[in-house]
Amino acid sequence: MAEKKQGLSIFFPDKVLKKIKNAAAYILIICLLSSPLTMTANAAPGTKARSAVLYEAETDTFLFTKNPDERLPIASITKIMTALVVLENCNPEEHVQFKRQWALTEGSSSGFREGGWYTVRQLLYALMLASGNDAAVALACHAAGSVENFARLMNRKASELGMTNSCFKNPHGLDEKGHYSTATDMAKLAAAAMKNEQFVILSSTKDVKIGKYRFSNHNKLLWKYPNVVGVKTGYTSAAGRTLVTCVKKKGMTLICVTLNDSDDWNDHISLFDWAGANYKIYTLDSRGGVGSLPVISGEKESALLKSERDVKLLLNSGDEVETEISLPRFAYAPVSEYEKAGEVHILVNGKKVDTVQILYSESVPVDPAVPLTFWEKVKWSWRLSNQYMDARYFLMY
Length: 397
What we know:
- The chain is of the alpha+beta class.
- It is about 35% helix and about 30% strand.
- It starts with a strand and ends with a strand.
């Protein structure tokens, strides 16, 4: 029997050929079993959502998408926009007298009574925890005079945030023609809302008591998953189950949005677990110091240093980060705050990815009582050269 390859005939006895084929099949099986594990180890889990995204807000990165820009009804996650617009246009301590027409709003309700007086803050708790549609209308009318005027404020804010595939018709999210958004846009909205401290307090509160009323947050992940900080649930017959959640994990701010998802709780948990296992954030914070530098002939012996700007890098969990700090061994007074002192180079797996200036974070004037001649400067230079190591440091992350 002969095996042919590229026109060349090679002859083997049948027994030898059989052994060769068995060995090849064995190797092929091993490859098939091992390759998928390597190739799919970082693959995101599936989701039952019609549309979904997992967004890392610190670095503006979408880690997972599924039909991310499909325009869909969004139900009560609309109230994220409602709360943000109210917080930006109203004082939370303003008082609102609850009107009868607001109490008659269909769907989920706060139960607040007609004629009762409530603060904007109390109405916001009813909005975010109880998902009160009546509270949504009350807040809209208080903030803008009518639902229609408030919808204009909502769409103006959407435009500011770059939500190019969204249109808001009401403050509660009840099904209405022309009221829609996308998973991408809702992630952008949630990221903006989570920068508002008052919003974070509202959306992360599990339970609250307002007079005789007690509200419990519909977001079950506040109880089921660590470090969840919001944000909102939703449901209508047209939209199905909608959910936006936010988790702080390994330096990341992870925002998950699912639209029309029958298994949203488990889908969010799976995506958060996957992101935590596969990604991390490296941060260089300009507010923190990066050491100090000796100053000769100054009113202080050294000057504190800081980086010029923040750096946030989204990395794979196995990536190694080094920072090379390049500085002189010393400086002569005077030095001025914000003056450049050196540089920090950031390397990922040995490759330089960013360079940031190191600045003085304080000024050190010359000390008139310590004048230095030329030879004294030479002496100080020699002394410091032996006292301080070369200012190139490698810090492992």
